[in-house]
TrEMBL record:
<dbReference type="GO" id="GO:0005829">
    <property type="term" value="C:cytosol"/>
</dbReference>
<dbReference type="InterPro" id="IPR029021">
    <property type="entry name" value="Prot-tyrosine_phosphatase-like"/>
</dbReference>
<dbReference type="InterPro" id="IPR051281">
    <property type="entry name" value="Dual-spec_lipid-protein_phosph"/>
</dbReference>
<feature type="region of interest" description="Disordered">
    <location>
        <begin position="370"/>
        <end position="409"/>
    </location>
</feature>
<dbReference type="GO" id="GO:0016314">
    <property type="term" value="F:phosphatidylinositol-3,4,5-trisphosphate 3-phosphatase activity"/>
</dbReference>
<protein>
    <recommendedName>
        <fullName>C2 tensin-type domain-containing protein</fullName>
    </recommendedName>
</protein>
<feature type="compositionally biased region" description="Basic and acidic residues">
    <location>
        <begin position="395"/>
        <end position="409"/>
    </location>
</feature>
Length: 409
């Protein structure tokens, strides 16, 4: 059965040199590759994209490049000769039949919450790393997966790994795949890995790989460089005291009635505190009670920090609490803004998060329980906001004054 890659003029190629005990000649498409056998070395050869790719559009995902086997368009993307990703339900699917051709040389890493029985039925070696829906794997889980996958790939030139996750968690698949590419030193930076993954997996090369995932990948890369042979320790637990939105321009939110809700933030204001509701006077144009309050939120490891507006996620960002200080300011670049799945405009904005270190809190509770209890409820002052350029803010203020004058008339 003839096979060719649709969407890319040829499969992306990563040449890996193997020890002399492994055959140094492999079949690549219709060519033979003569590989040096002195050491493990990865050489990246980027693919070229053809003008009219064959694509299949999923209801909950962007249009993706498809691998064609005979007359079938499969939800399989080759990140290299030996690294495949897929998010289609594989039980009883054509994708699963295609993977049978690798037999025992194929090892599946399943990151979906559920076990896929089809892997065992076909006798495909598989590892299950269950993740919570919408939550990324911890640094230690990513490290264990990368070590297992790299050990398997180095065992033989014919070995391949398949990274699988259910369709609704497609974005997490990119995080997992890029972690492996960084661990194997195929890429030298998180942004480079994210850009190449978006180009290979999706038709639109500008597919918005979440900025917060790039942030987390960068932290994962630092851990690999500092201690590549040691699993990272679990990040310390920290308590989230407050989320502050610094002053910004006009926003538009897509609501359930298919209309747009516009609001203007004139001053900086707390969207979340551990002790009291937001100050309605500091945020104008919408009701401050839109935001859900979750007292004494504990942030452990890499989590999705959310500000909820009537059940809708307003912004999110992945944080590693190992890298968080008491004050963590996230710029516009590091935030993923969304509402009802719709992106909306933002400008001149930053989010400030205030944390408590639970280790110091526990020590204070042992020495002075009264002081520790008071500290849990006492609001902390927020540091000086990062304002937009004066000229822009003056323009915003002048426009607001003009509108107020028109209303009074």
């Amino acid at each position: 059965m003839s096979m060719h890659y649709v969407g890319l003029s040829h499969r992306p190629e990563v040449r890996i040199s193997y020890p002399s005990s492994v055959s140094s000649v492999r079949r690549y498409g219709d060519q033979q590759l003569n590989l040096p056998a002195d050491s493990y070395r990865y050489e990246w050869h980027p693919p070229s994209v053809v003008s009219q790719p064959t694509v299949v559009t999923e209801s909950s995902a962007y249009a993706k490049h498809k691998f064609r086997s005979g007359t079938l368009d499969l939800d399989i993307t080759y990140l290299s000769e030996q690294i495949l990703v897929t998010s289609r339900d594989l039980l009883g699917s054509y994708e699963l039949e295609y993977l049978k051709k690798h037999h025992s040389n194929c090892r599946v890493f399943n990151f979906s919450p559920d076990v896929v029985l089809g892997f065992d039925v076909l006798g495909l070696p598989n590892e299950h790393f269950p993740v919570e829906e919408g939550q990324p794997p911890s640094q230690s889980v990513l490290w264990m997966f990368c070590c297992e996958a790299e050990r398997w790939l180095k065992g033989s030139a014919s070995h391949v790994v398949v990274l699988y996750i259910d369709l609704k968690n497609e974005k997490l698949l990119g995080l997992v795949a890029c972690s492996l590419l960084l661990h194997m030193r195929i890429y030298s930076s998180a942004q480079e890995a994210a850009n190449m993954y978006s180009m290979l997996r999706f038709v639109d090369p500008n597919y918005p790989f979440p900025k917060s995932y790039v942030r987390l990948l960068g932290f994962f890369m630092k851990l690999n460089v500092s201690s590549p042979d040691k699993a990272p320790a679990d990040p310390p637990r920290k308590r989230l005291r407050s989320i502050m939105l610094h002053r910004a321009s006009t926003f538009s939110l897509h609501d359930n009635q298919s209309s747009f809700l516009f609001f203007r933030i004139k001053n900086s204001g707390n969207l979340f505190t551990s002790s009291a509701m937001s100050d309605a006077n500091s945020v104008t144009g919408f009701d401050a009670t839109m935001f859900s309050m979750r007292p004494h939120v504990v942030v452990q490891g890499e989590v999705l920090v959310e500000c909820l507006a009537r059940g809708r996620v307003l912004f999110s960002s992945l944080l590693s609490t190992s890298a968080c200080s008491e004050r963590e300011v996230l710029s516009d670049f590091e935030l993923d803004w969304t509402a009802e799945g719709q992106k909306f405009a933002k400008k001149n904005i930053s989010i400030e998060l205030a944390f408590d270190d639970l280790i110091s809190q526990r020590a204070l509770q042992q020495t002075s329980p009264t002081a520790a209890a008071a500290q849990l409820t006492a609001p902390r002052p927020i540091s000086s906001p990062v304002f937009p350029p004066t000229s822009l803010w003056q323009q915003e203020r002048e426009l607001e004054r003009e509108r107020e004058s028109e209303r009074e008339r």
